[in-house]
Amino acid sequence: MAMIATQTSLSGSSQSPRSPSTQPFLSVSVTDPAKLGNGVQSYISYRVITRTNLPEYQGPEKIVIRRYSDFIWLHDRLFEKYKGIFIPPLPEKNAVEKFRFSAEFIEMRRQALDIFVNRIALHPQLQQSEDLKTFLQVDEETMERARSQETGIFKKKPADFMQIFKDVQSKVSDAVLGKEKPVEESNPEYEKLKNYIFELEEDLAEAQKHAFRLVKRHKELGQSLSDFGKAIKLLGACEGNSLGKAFSELGSKSEMLSIKLQKEAHNLLMKFAEPLKDYVRAVQSIKATMAERATAFKHQYELAETIKLKEINLDKLMLIRSDKVGEAEIEYRELKVEGEEATKKYEMIVQLMNEEIVRFQEQKTWDVGVAFHELAKGQAQLANEIADAWRSLLPKLEACSSAQT
Amino acid sequence: MATITTQRSLSGSSQSPRSPSAQPFLGITVTDPVKLGNGVQAYISYRVITKTNFPEYQGPEKIVIRRYSDFVWLRDRLFEKYKGIFIPPLPEKSAVEKFRFSSEFIEMRRQALDIFLNRIASHPELRQSEDLRTFLQVDEETMERARSQETGIFKKKPADLMQIFKDVQSKVSDVVLGKEKPLEESSPEYEKLKHYTFELEDHLAEAQKHAFRLVKRHRELGQSLADFGKAIKLLGACEGNSLGKAFSELGSKSETLSIKLQKEAHHLLMKFEEPLKDYVRAVQSIKATMAERANAFKHQCELAETIKLKEINLDKLMLTRSDKVGEAEIEYRELKAEGEEATRRFETIVRLMSEEIVRFQEQKTLDIGIAFHELAKGQAQMANEIADAWRSLIPKLEACSART
C-alpha cells in the first residue's frame, strides 16, 4: 500500500452526518498475485481489497479479483472522462515472454498497480469516478462484460496520441516555416512547460536506463563473488593446515557477501529503479494530457473560425433579405452554443492542468527525494556490511600467515 | 623489488674476507618499460638494475637493457642446468595483440619479471649461475648473440614437456591395465605429491579465473556508476531548486564512487589476481621439474636393464672364452659408469626436490597469506569509503525532501 494522506474534502456525494473523528477514507491494496489459465492464455490475477467508510461503497471491506486488462480499462475510462487531469500511469503492457512470470516482474507489476489505484483513490476528482467504484466492487463476470464492451469505442492506442502530438508539432514547424497559420496556443508559459516536459522525459529515460543497469551490475558482481567463493573453498579442500583454513574462511565470506549483493540489487530495483521508471510514466501521462489540451484548443479554435464565417454569411443573407436567413440563423446559434461548449471544455482543461502541475511537482519532489534516500541508505548499509565482513576476516588471515611450518 | 632474504651460505666461489656487517646481497630491479621498434616488430625493453657486493659482479651497480626473450633465455638455461630445482616462472609469452601494449599489461609483466629475477637471486643455488651473471651484466649485442645461439639446442617447448608427462601418465595407465612393467617410481609419498600438484593446478586455475572475473565486475560496476552519475546530473540540470541540487549531489557522488571502484579493480588485479596467477605458474614449473625427474628415473632404469643384459652376455662370453670378452668388458664398465652417473643425477634431483618442496610450501603460504590480506584490506577500505560517501549524502537529501 502506498502512503496515503487522508482526504477531508469530498464534494458532490450525499453523506450521512459523521463525527469529526470519522474521517472519510478510501484505501486499496493490490495483493496475492496468482497465475491462472494454461499455456499461452495464462495470466496473473490480483486480489484488490478496498477498505472504506464512504457511503457509495458496499460495506467497510470488499475483495474482488482483477487482472491487468481490468486496470487498463479503468485507466482508459478515466482518461476519456477527466481531460486535463494527469491520470496516474500504468506499468508497461508488454514484457519479454520468458520474463513475464518471473517473481521479480510480478512483484514489480503488483507494486505499480497498487500505487496506481491508490493515486486514483487520493485524487480529489478521480476518487469520485463511477468507473472507479465499478472497478473496485463488481464481480468478475460484470467486470469482464464491461471490459469487452469498451473495445474500439474509447480505446486510443498510444500510437494515436503520438500521432496527435506529431500533428501538433508539425503544425508548429509549418508555422515557423511560414506555411500556414498555427493552430497552437501561443502562451509562453505553456511553451516553457512543454519544453520542460519533453526535456525531462528524455533525461529521465536515460537516468532510468542507467539505474536498471546498476541493478544488473550488482547482480553480476554478486554472482562473481559466489563463483569465486566456491572456487576458493575447493582450493582450500586440497590444502591442509592453516592455509586451507584461510581459503575456507575467504570462500565462505565471499559467498555471504554475494547474498548481500543480490539483496541490495533487489532493493535497488524496487526502491529506486522502479520509482524512476514510474516518474517516466508519469511524465508520459502529462504528455498525453497535453495532447488532449492541444486537441481541445484546435477544436475550439476551428469552431471559432467557422462561426466567424457563418456570421459573415448570415449578414450577407440578411442584407439581401434571402429566405435562407432563418435556417442560417438557427445554424449560427447552434454553432455558437457548440463553440461556447468547446471553449468551456478547453478552459476547464487549462484550469485543471494548472492545479495538476502543482500537485505533480510536489508529489514528484517528494517521491524522488524518497527514492534517492532509499538509494543512499541501501548503498551505505550494504557498503558497511561489506566492510565489516572483510575486516572480520583480517585477524583470521593474519593468524594463518603467521603460522608457518 | 620482491622481498629478499639474504642468504648466509655461499658455496663454491672465492671470496675476499669481509666484515660481518657487509652481508652478501644481490638486489635486482626491473623498471622503466619502453616501447621500441615499429609496427609488427615493436617490443618492450626494460631497464634491469643490479645492486650487489658479490665479487663476481662488476661493481656495486650495473644497468642493462633487456627484453622479454632475454628472460626466456635465462629461464631455459636454468631449467636445463639445475634439474630438480623449481625454476621461478615467467609471465605468459603471448598476449592478445591489442592488449599487448596496454599500460596495465606492461605493468603486470614488469612486476612479474622483477619477481622472477629476485627469486633467482634469493635461491641458494640459482643465484650462483653463470647465466644469471651473463644476463645481468653483458651489453645488449652480446646478449642478443647468446640468445640466438641457443635456439634449437636447449629450447624445449612446453609441448615437449607435456609429451613427456603424457608418456609418464600413459605408462601408469598401462600398468593399471596390466600391459607392462612400470617405468615409474613407486614411492607412495611422491605419488601423493604428484596427485596434490595436479589437483592444485586445476583448482588454482579455476580460482584465478574467477578472481579475474571479479576484477572485471568491479570495472563494470564502476563504469555503470559513472554513466548513471552523468545521466543524473543532466536530469538535475533541467530541474530547479532543491530537487535539482539533490540530483546534482547524487550525480557527483556516483562519479566519485566510480573512480574508487576502478581504483580497487586495479588494486585487485595487481595485488590479488596476479599473485594467484603467479601461483598457477609456479605449480606448472613444479610439474615441469616432475617431468624431468621422471625422465631421469626412466633413463636410470633403462640403463640398469641394459647393464643387467650386458652382465648376462659377458658371463656367457666368459664361459665360452670368446675373444669378444675384452671388448664386452670395456663396454660393460663404461655402461656401469654411465649407470652410476644416471643414478647420481636422479638422486640429486630427488634430493633437491625434497628441499624445494619445503621452500615452495613456505613461500607459497606466505605469498597467499599476503594476497588474501591485500584482498580483504582493499575491499574493506573501498567499502568504508563507499559507505562514508553515501552517508554524507543522506543529510543533503533529507534537506531536499523536507521542503514542500
Automatic annotation (TrEMBL), chain A:
Biased-composition ranges for Low complexity?
A: 1-24
Show the segment(s) annotated as Disordered: 1-25
| PX domain sequence ranges | 24-143
A Gene Ontology cellular component where this protein is annotated is: endosome
Check the record and name the InterPro entries matching this protein: AH/BAR_dom_sf (IPR027267), PX_dom (IPR001683), PX_dom_sf (IPR036871), Vps5_C (IPR015404)
Gene Ontology MF terms = phosphatidylinositol binding
**Name of the molecule in the record:** Sorting nexin 1-like isoform X3
Q: Which gene encodes it?
A: LOC104607636
TrEMBL record, chain B:
Q: Which Pfam families match?
A: PX, Vps5
Q: Could you name the domain of life of the organism this protein comes from? A: Eukaryota
- Gene3D superfamilies for this protein: Arfaptin homology (AH) domain/BAR domain (1.20.1270.60), Phox-like domain (3.30.1520.10)
| Ranges of biased composition (kind: Low complexity) | 7-24
Query: What SMART domains is this protein classified in?
Result: PX
List the residue ranges forming a coiled coil, or say none.
none
Q: Which CDD domains match?
A: BAR_SNX, PX_SNX1_2_like
Region annotation Disordered: residue ranges?
A: 1-24
- Show the PROSITE patterns listed in the entry: PX (PS50195)
In this protein, which residues make up the domain named PX? 24-143
User: Which GO cellular component terms are attached?
Assistant: endosome; membrane
Show the SUPFAM superfamilies listed in the entry. BAR/IMD domain-like (SSF103657), PX domain (SSF64268)
Q: Which molecular function terms from Gene Ontology are attached?
A: phosphatidylinositol binding
Which InterPro entries does the record associate with it?
A: AH/BAR_dom_sf (IPR027267), PX_dom (IPR001683), PX_dom_sf (IPR036871), Vps5_C (IPR015404)
Q: What PANTHER family would the database entry show?
A: FI18122P1, SORTING NEXIN
Q: Could you identify this protein by its name?
A: Sorting nexin 1
Q: Which organism is it from?
A: Nelumbo nucifera
Please state the gene responsible for encoding this protein: LOC104589207
